[in-house]
Write a structure and sequence with these properties.
ASHA1/2-like_C, SRPBCC domain-containing protein, START-like_dom_sf, 4 helices
């Protein structure tokens, strides 16, 4: 038995098949600090009447926001682009709710044909820092780099809107 095969069988090495496997795009991580209490940030993430005020990247407005805020409950939002007047529907299901510190939910865009697109999982952790809150978001598993980067832009722009909402 070759030395390389022995290592592979022992779990010490992976075979070199000449294919580079970059999976760094599969998980999106974002950290953001808000000048508001953890309870206030959690409310903005969980109460539909508040969520609808700030949700969506700049250039979009949330026209419909439905949240059944319980584990197993569904959520759905429709974002209208002010640039092209197109509607973008996204929704999912709550998997874990631990007020006021943690949310886990599925995420999938509705495709133009009405079917559900690729599903990812979003985990949001809120850390109490006195009069500030540190939010850490993880979203996984993306199909490709482009999708991950589009979501990064969307979340960061949406959190700019949340920051503005919390400042009012």
């Amino acid at each position: 038995m070759s030395d390389h095969l022995s290592k592979v069988m022992a779990g010490d090495s992976q075979p070199d098949n000449g294919i580079a496997s970059d999976t760094s795009f599969q998980t999106l991580e974002i950290s953001r600090r808000f000048s508001a209490s953890r309870e206030r940030v959690f409310s903005a993430l969980s109460q539909p009447e508040l969520f609808q005020i700030w949700w969506g990247p700049k250039g979009c407005r949330c026209t419909i926001c439905e949240i059944d805020f319980r584990v197993g409950g569904k959520w759905l939002t429709i974002l209208e682009s002010t640039q092209d007047c197109q509607n973008h529907t996204v929704g999912g299901e709550y998997r874990e709710i631990l007020p006021p510190e943690r949310l886990v939910f599925s995420w999938a865009w509705q495709l133009p044909d009405g079917n559900q697109g690729h599903e990812t999982e979003v985990s949001i952790q809120l850390y109490d820092e006195g009069d500030k809150t540190l939010l850490k978001l993880y979203q996984k598993v993306f199909e490709n780099v482009e999708s991950c980067e589009k979501h990064r832009h969307g979340w960061e722009s949406s959190y700019d809107c949340l920051d503005q909402y919390l400042a009012d």
